[in-house]
Structures are given as C-alpha cells and as structure tokens.
C-alpha cells in the first residue's frame, strides 16, 4: 500500500475512464430497491448484456492500461523486470487479502466465506497480465492473449464435467460452475444463477486476464500514437473491429458476463477502447480537463473507494435500528423514510445509490484536494 502527496504526469483520460467506471460500479452495487432497478444498472440474468455488465471488464481494461503506463515508465528508467514482478506479486497479495477480508466482513464467518470475489479477480488478472507484459513482449503477448480467449472458448464448447463432448452454456451444467463447486464447495457466491457457480470463479478468470491485456495493448498503441510512431486511427478502428467481432461471435457463443465468454471479452474490450479513445481525444489531446475533475476524484483512489463503499454497504444491510417497534436494517430505514416517499420505485432506487455515491465522492474529494492517493 502506497500513499503519496505528489502526482506524477498521468493520462487524464485513464483516470477519467477509471473514475467513470468506479462511479457506475458503486451505483450498480448499491441500489435502494433491488426489485425496481433501471436496466442501465442491471446485470443480464444470463445471456446478453445490460448496462451493469460493462463495469467489471472496463475496470480490468483500466488495470491493464495503468499497468502499461507504470511499467513502461519504470522500465524506461532502468528498473529491472524482476523488481517490477516482485512489486506486482506484493500488490496481488494485498488485493486478494483485501478481497477475502471484504467477503468476511462484517460477521467473519469462515464456514460460509466466499473465496472468489471482485478484488481477488483484479489481483489475479493483474499478476498474470504483469507476467505476460514483462516477460513475453508485445507481439508474443498478443498471441498469448488470443490463445487465452480461444482456448477458453474451446473449453466452454467442447469440455463437460464428464469429459470431452458438447459443452454446456447453461447455468446448471457449465464447466466453470463444475470447477467452482468442486474446488470451493460452500464457498461461492450465494446469489449466483446456479448453486455452486461463482461469477468471479477460477476458470472464468482466464478470459478476464485477456480483458486486462486488451487495456495494456490499447495504452501501448495510444502512447505510440502520441509519440508519432503509430497512426491515430488505429486505436478507434481496433475498438470498432473488436466490438464487431464480439457481436458476430455472439451468434455462436453468446455474450455472457457470468461465463466471461470470448464474445463478451471482445465486445466489451472494443467498447472500452472506443470510450478510452474518446476520453483521450477530449481530455488529453484537447486539454479540456475541467469537466473531468469529478471523475478524477474517484479515479485516483478507485480501489480505496470501492473497498470502503463496499464495507459500508454491507454494514448497512447487517446493522438494525428500531422502527415502530420492529428492527429494520439501516439501509431499509434510510431508503424507506428518506428516499422512497419522494420518487417512483426505480427512481427512488437510483436516487438512494446516487446519494450513497455522493457521500463517498465527498470523502475522496478531500483526499484529492490534499493530493493523497492510495494505490493498493
């Protein structure tokens, strides 16, 4: 964990991209009424995608892009690859440990501890993407990323829990779910589409590494373009190509966030590239930075605000207060008495999440003004 009061030269577009992503993530994870949520803040039940399904691959894209920015600068300054890998391993350990802590919070019941999780996946993706980036080289890294996507797709389509054959993409019978049930019995996500399945499970982390590498490649192309070594049109055209390829592949193997299917990797990776390029065009190349500040506040401390807001959200559904003689969770009390009477069901749900986001934004703004940035 590193705290600093000085800000190095950064890509504003990357912090903006990460800030927007974490803002949407907080909104998605903290709706006031889960029975009345706008589609833009829902996950697809299984196949297909809704607004919430862009959040996690976008965040991994930002992890990969940040990795390139950091590692390329340090390598250029003469830092040894081994030293960078040690740093990456240390950061992976911290992220995985924090993820397990978050899953235990607030009751710390080890018997029902969910072992996979969001921070665990971020840590593992960062670790393996670092290995590829530092030791494979860019061209070989591209081939490895393609191999991860195609190899995982082959496993989904042709490997079953019983052996080789026609794989299943259904919630009950897919290979990733079988592996999670076998390795983590009783320790997977309780609200998963099928018992024992985990959306951040072990096998589905393989294509998520590819999502991280797409971010690293995009940042590399952007830096090359900024240095006059590549054409500017390569990046947005690459994004359009990947998204189109993902949509086409979705006709064979559907876009599915829970399974992190190859079509999902390509489609979301392409979409992330396009938005990243637009952010760069306006906020780096165009020097049009003032409207970015609200999101930079979150983007500079993204992991920290995710961790703290998640802990607060879990505490608010675990702690109770009396309400007309009957106990009610803190979240329900605030929503029922402070938000629900003023809006329609879906609007009230969103307004609660927006107020929750604003609370954490203010805290992060104080850190931002003091130039305190905590990199986990």
Task: Give the helix/strand layout.
Elements: E1 2-4, H1 12-29, H2 55-76, H3 81-104, H4 118-136, H5 138-158, E2 159-160, E3 163-164, H6 175-183, H7 205-226, H8 234-249, H9 262-285, H10 293-299, H11 302-316, E4 320-323, E5 326-329, H12 330-339, H13 345-369, E6 373-375
Antiparallel strand pairs: 1-6, 2-3, 4-5
Helix pairs in contact: 1-2, 1-9, 1-10, 1-11, 1-13, 2-4, 2-7, 3-4, 4-7, 5-7, 7-9, 8-9, 10-13
Explain this structure.
With 376 residues, this protein is mainly alpha-helical. The protein is built from 13 helices and 6 strands. The chain has helices at residues 12-29, 55-76, 81-104, 118-136, 138-158, 175-183, 205-226, 234-249, 262-285, 293-299, 302-316, 330-339, 345-369, and strands at 2-4, 159-160, 163-164, 320-323, 326-329, 373-375. The strands form 3 sheets. It has a two-stranded antiparallel ribbon with strand order 1-6. A hairpin with a 2-residue loop joins strand 2 and strand 3 (163-164). Helix 1 (12-29) crosses helix 9 (262-285), helix 1 packs across helix 10 (293-299) and helix 1 packs across helix 13 (345-369). It is globular, with a radius of gyration of 21 Å. Residues 1-8 have low confidence and may be disordered.
């Amino acid at each position: 964990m590193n705290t600093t009061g000085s800000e190095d030269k950064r890509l504003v577009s990357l912090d903006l991209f990460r800030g927007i992503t974490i803002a949407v993530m907080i909104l998605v994870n903290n709706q006031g009424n889960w029975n009345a949520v706008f589609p833009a803040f829902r996950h697809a039940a299984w196949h297909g995608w809704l607004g919430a399904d862009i959040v996690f691959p976008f965040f991994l894209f930002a992890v990969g892009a940040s990795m390139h920015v950091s590692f390329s600068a340090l390598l250029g300054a003469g830092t040894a690859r081994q030293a960078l890998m040690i740093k990456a391993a240390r950061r992976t350990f911290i992220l995985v440990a924090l993820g397990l802590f978050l899953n235990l919070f607030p009751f710390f019941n080890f018997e029902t501890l969910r072992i996979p999780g969001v921070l665990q996946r971020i840590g593992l993706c960062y670790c393996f993407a670092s290995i590829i980036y530092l030791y494979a080289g860019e061209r070989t890294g591209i081939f490895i990323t393609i191999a991860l996507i195609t190899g995982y797709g082959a496993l989904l389509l042709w490997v079953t829990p019983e052996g080789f054959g026609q794989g299943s993409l259904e919630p009950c019978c897919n290979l990733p779910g079988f592996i999670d049930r076998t390795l983590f019995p009783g320790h997977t996500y309780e609200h998963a589409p099928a018992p024992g399945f985990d959306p951040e499970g072990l096998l589905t982390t393989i294509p998520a590494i590819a999502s991280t590498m797409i971010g690293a490649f995009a940042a590399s192309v952007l830096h090359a373009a900024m240095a006059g070594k590549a054409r500017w049109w390569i990046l947005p055209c690459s994004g359009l190509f990947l998204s189109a390829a993902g949509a086409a592949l979705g006709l064979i193997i559907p876009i599915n966030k829970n399974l992190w299917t190859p079509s999902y990797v390509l489609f979301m990776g392409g979409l992330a590239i396009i938005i990243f390029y637009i952010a760069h065009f306006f906020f780096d190349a165009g020097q049009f930075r003032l409207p970015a500040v609200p999101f930079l506040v979150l983007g500079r401390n993204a992991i920290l605000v995710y961790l703290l807001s998640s802990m607060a959200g879990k505490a608010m559904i675990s702690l109770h207060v009396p309400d007309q003689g009957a106990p009610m969770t803190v979240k329900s009390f605030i929503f029922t008495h402070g938000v629900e009477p003023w809006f329609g069901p879906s609007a009230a749900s969103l307004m609660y999440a927006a107020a929750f986001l604003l609370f954490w934004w203010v805290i992060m703004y104080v850190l931002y003004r003091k130039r305190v940035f905590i990199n986990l």
